[in-house]
């Protein structure tokens, strides 16, 4: 029955347009009753959409996404706790905060990067609160990794903005080597959507042209 269901889902998705990019094939729908917005997973950040990577894996458009409720920042220091660049002075999709200390503020991209690197040690970078903080971040659409912290592994960890550049497929079929990558086509390098620490050529993992994300076996 899975094959039939899958075909039905693909057929229906082909008829739906992404409200962000207007292209067809939008497979993700806002779970709010009565909302007919659909979108592609890669378009979610541009559309300020939230997908929760736990439980029922619910997705929300910008209008129905969960919102953080935080008190005014005690320190009035409008800098990101992680990168120290300026953040908005209000909580928004791009600017998030810690529900425990009510003081830490950070860019969504910064806290997402920290979550993937910190793994099971993920916690507020300011007050070090863990459980309420993790629950809030999951609710707000931050993906967590089940791996140990990247700084505790044997593998050398480069700068946070250094992109993984190697195919980790069991059998790499690329004639140019595992490190070879092209901007498009069969030798385009895909990174794991959960940890970004492993990659694969599109052809080496038989990824179709309509694929929008890939996860490694560990995640």
Keywords:
two-stranded antiparallel sheet, 3 helices, Herpes Virus-1, 219 residues, single chain, 3 domains, alpha+beta, two-stranded antiparallel ribbon, globular, 9% strand
- Report the β-strand fraction as a percent range: 5-15%
Secondary-structure element order, as H and E? HEEEEEEHHEE
Oligomer: single chain
The largest pleated sheet is described as: 2 strands, antiparallel
Count of structural domains: 3
Please state the overall shape, judged from the principal axes of the Cα atoms: globular
What proportion of the residues is helical, as a percent range?
10-25%
Distance between the termini: 26 Å
Strand order of the largest sheet: 1-2
Decide which structural class fits the backbone.
alpha+beta
Number of strands: 8
Number of helices: 3
What does the average pLDDT come to? Answer: 84
Rounded to an integer, what's the Rg over CA atoms?
A: 19 Å
Question: What low-confidence regions span 5 or more consecutive residues with pLDDT below 50?
Answer: 154-161
Give a structural overview.
The chain has three helices and eight strands, in the order H-E-E-E-E-E-E-H-H-E-E. It is α+β, with helices and mostly antiparallel strands. It folds into three domains: 8-64, Zinc/RING finger domain, C3HC4 (zinc finger) (Herpes Virus-1, 2-Layer Sandwich), CATH 3.30.40; 95-152, no CATH class; 164-218, 2-Layer Sandwich (Herpes Virus-1). The strands form four sheets. The chain has a two-stranded antiparallel sheet. The chain is globular, with a radius of gyration of 19 Å. The two termini are 26 Å apart. 25% of the residues are buried. The model is unreliable at 154-161 (pLDDT under 50). This is G2E3 ligase. It comes from Sylvia borin. Pfam families: PHD_G2E3, zf-HC5HC2H. Residues 1-65 form the PHD-type domain.
């Amino acid at each position: 029955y899975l094959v039939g269901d899958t075909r039905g889902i693909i057929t229906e998705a082909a008829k739906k347009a992404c409200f962000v990019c207007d292209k067809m094939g939008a497979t993700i729908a806002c779970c709010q009753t009565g909302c007919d917005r659909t979108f592609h997973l890669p378009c979610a950040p541009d559309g300020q959409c939230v997908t929760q990577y736990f439980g029922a894996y619910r997705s929300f458009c910008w209008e129905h996404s969960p919102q953080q409720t935080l008190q005014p920042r005690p320190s009035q220091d409008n800098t990101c706790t992680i990168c120290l660049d300026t953040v908005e002075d209000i909580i928004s999709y791009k600017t998030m905060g810690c529900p425990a200390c009510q003081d830490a503020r950070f860019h969504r991209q910064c806290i997402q990067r920290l979550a993937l690197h910190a793994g099971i040690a993920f916690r507020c970078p300011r007050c070090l609160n863990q459980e309420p903080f993790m629950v809030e971040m999951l609710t707000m659409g931050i993906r967590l990794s089940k791996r140990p912290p990247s700084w505790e592994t044997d593998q050398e960890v480069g700068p946070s903005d250094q992109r993984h550049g190697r195919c980790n497929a069991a059998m790499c079929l690329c004639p140019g080597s595992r490190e070879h990558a092209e901007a498009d086509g069969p030798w385009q390098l895909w990174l794991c959507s959960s940890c970004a620490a492993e990659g694969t050529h599109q052809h080496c993992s038989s990824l179709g042209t309509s694929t929008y994300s890939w996860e490694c076996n560990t995640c």
